Amino acid sequence: MNYKKCLNKNTKSLQGKVAAITGSTGGLGSAICQTLCELGAELILLDRNEEKANEQIKNLTALFPTLKISFIKVDLLNFESVKNCCEKLKNTKLDYLILNAGIYNVKREKTSLGFDNVFQVNFLMPYYITKTLLPTLRRANGKVVAVSSIAHNYSKTDENDIEFLNEKKNSKIYGNSKRFLTYSLFKLFENEDSAGLTLAHPGITLTNMTNHYPKAINWLVKIGIKILFPSPKKASQNIIKAMFVDASKNEPQWVGPQIFNIWGKPKLKDLKTSTNDEIEFVYSTAESLYKTIAD
């Protein structure tokens, strides 16, 4: 995939547009930010690491001197931090909200809200942010781009264990949280008229989330991923394309690599990995959890 050709084909100028992105300092997030700057967008970095964010601002403004960029500290493990972030964004112009932050293969712990940390970071807080900021997005006819994962299809939802607390396999724990995010947002936007949603996934690429193998083999895995799979810069084009496509069908769709969801150019495809009954359950659970924490 040729980066420049892909960019020219799938995008247009974002001059005058404001894009907020969670997880902005990670490997994929940094690549997304770089492209957004090339397209002329104003950036709002939503990240927990203030030091990295400030360094990122310094580097981006050196490359793009006229860039408008700001930072709001937000830790998705801390609900008060998330609420404060939403309060700061409520009265801003917001054309795009990119839900990119996520965690994988971390020590599982209960958050202050009482939820599993993987479930909260990858699903519950992104859902809360989206629903809370919907009025803001509607004012600008804005769009949410949610980063999902092929891991969402590694298992089905368990109505008796929505957080997969009894699951030990990290890929399924992570996949379950992405499954909740994917289908709760689809249902939330199903009849939305003034704001849009596109789901996207980058395929497999080398980021901090793939840095979880034992030290003895981690270096070998990194080399393998670099050789076999797209770089974060190329993988990020799936998320960038998702900003511009029309995914307004009533059936779930997402943007991802065209070949086996791993390699190739970004392509909008139907997402047929769940039943209507499961989607309804995921959405009703999301709404119930939102009401609980919002109240």
Q: Kindly provide the name of the CATH class.
A: Alpha Beta
The helix fraction, in percent, is 40-55%
Average pLDDT over all residues: 91
Report Rg: 18 Å
Helix and strand pattern: HEHEHEHEHEHEHHHEEH
Strand order of the largest sheet: 3-2-1-4-5-6-7-8
How many domain units? Answer: 1
Q: In the CATH scheme, what's the topology name? A: Rossmann fold
Which regions have little confidence, pLDDT < 50, spanning 5+ residues? none
Largest sheet: 8 strands, mixed
**Measured distance between first and last alpha carbons:** 47 Å
Main structural class: alpha/beta
- The CATH architecture is 3-Layer(aba) Sandwich
Number of helices: 10
Overview of this structure, please?
With 295 residues, the protein is of the alpha/beta class. The chain has a single domain (3-294), classed as Rossmann fold. Helix content is 44%, strand content 15%. The chain contains 10 helices and 8 strands. It has helices at residues 3-10, 27-38, 50-63, 79-90, 117-139, 170-188, 215-228, 232-235, 237-242, 276-294; strands at residues 18-22, 42-47, 69-73, 96-99, 143-147, 196-200, 253-259, 263-270. It has an 8-stranded mixed β-sheet, with helices on both faces. The chain starts with a helix and ends with a helix. The model has no long low-confidence stretch (mean pLDDT 91).
